[in-house]
Specification:
By secondary structure, the chain is mostly helical. The chain is built from three helices and no strands.
Amino acid sequence: MELSNLQAAMRAIYGERDSSRGVDATFRWLTEEVGELAKAMRTGDRENLQHEFGDVLAWLLSLANVEGVELEDAIARYAAGCPRCGTSPCGCPPA
């Protein structure tokens, strides 16, 4: 599934609810899911890990919808390689 199609599906399913919840509360839900993803990573439970990755992506899509950001447009700067050095793999010095 294309990212834009997935974002549109999330908008159709949860758009009204997400809009009423607002940016701040939707962001808090996203951060809670990131915490659950961290816990799944620590435990090594692959099934739960997949579940939590899905939840994080879903809440990121919801937050983008509330903010009016199309994630496919937002990620486009990475399509040709590293946005800083322009190469793939990245040739930037390690941070």
